[in-house]
Amino acid sequence: VQLVESGGGLVQAGGSLRLSCAASGSTFSVTAMGWYRQAPGKQRELVASISSFGSNTNYADSVKGRFTISRDNAKSTMYLQMNSLKAEDTAVYYCNARIGVITPYDAWGQGTQVTVSS
Length: 118
Hints:
- It is built from no helices and eleven strands.
- The chain has strands at 2-6, 9-12, 17-24, 30-38, 45-50, 57-59, 67-72, 77-82, 91-99, 105-108, 112-117.
């Protein structure tokens, strides 16, 4: 499975961005998916995750109420709607997908830069 993120960019504080993660290859084997981010000098952290059919979602406390994760399995695409962006949201955002059930492994995208100017 290959993952490609898009939608990053430069935005002013208070603005919005929508990230997309398009999956290709053996997408039928994708189960849970998630968005992670890594700011300079910091560890990669989980931003939000979503279950196989989108019925369950989880968010980091720092983004609750501002970010919304969703997925469209028919399009093999996951989204992250980011509203009320803050300077501290600046990071490289990575798409993650859990592949398989019996011996699962993780696939990662190349990342997309999000920069929020204050």
